[in-house]
């Protein structure tokens, strides 16, 4: 998946240092690679693209205005403790947490918004 970002360096720090996401390709120290590409699990990766270039990558589609969520990004984890820990890391890194982790009718989940307002829902893999 790819996400537009208004501030690539800030988004890189949030995901790399704040959430501890692993880069697809290693870099020296805390250097920001180009492209910024994280491995989320064996089958899913996240690429951060500056807002100005996102329309080109997305085939001419415009980026939504700030504060508009076009979708919710879902990431399934193995345990409730992992959901709790990643939501806590996101909050410590400056994320808004509109739905703290907890039991829901559909399972255990929680949500956070990254610095660009993208909404992430973490849940326990069923």
From TrEMBL:
Under Pfam families, the record lists: Glyoxalase
Q: Please give the superkingdom of this protein's source.
A: Bacteria
Q: Where is the VOC domain?
A: 1-125
UniProt xrefs under PANTHER family: BLR2520 PROTEIN
* Protein name in the entry: Glyoxalase family protein
């Amino acid at each position: 998946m790819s996400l537009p970002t208004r501030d690539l360096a800030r988004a890189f720090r949030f995901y790399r240092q704040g959430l501890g996401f692993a880069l697809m390709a290693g870099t020296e120290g805390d250097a920001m690679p180009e492209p910024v590409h994280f491995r989320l699990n064996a089958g899913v990766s996240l690429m951060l693209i500056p807002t100005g270039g996102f329309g080109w990558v997305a085939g001419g589609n415009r980026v939504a205005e700030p504060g508009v969520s076009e979708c919710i990004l879902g990431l399934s984890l193995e345990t409730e403790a992992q959901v709790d820990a990643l939501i806590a890391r996101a909050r410590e890194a400056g994320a808004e947490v509109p739905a703290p982790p907890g039991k829901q009718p559909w399972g255990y989940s929680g949500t956070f918004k990254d610095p660009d307002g993208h909404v992430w829902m973490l849940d326990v893999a069923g």
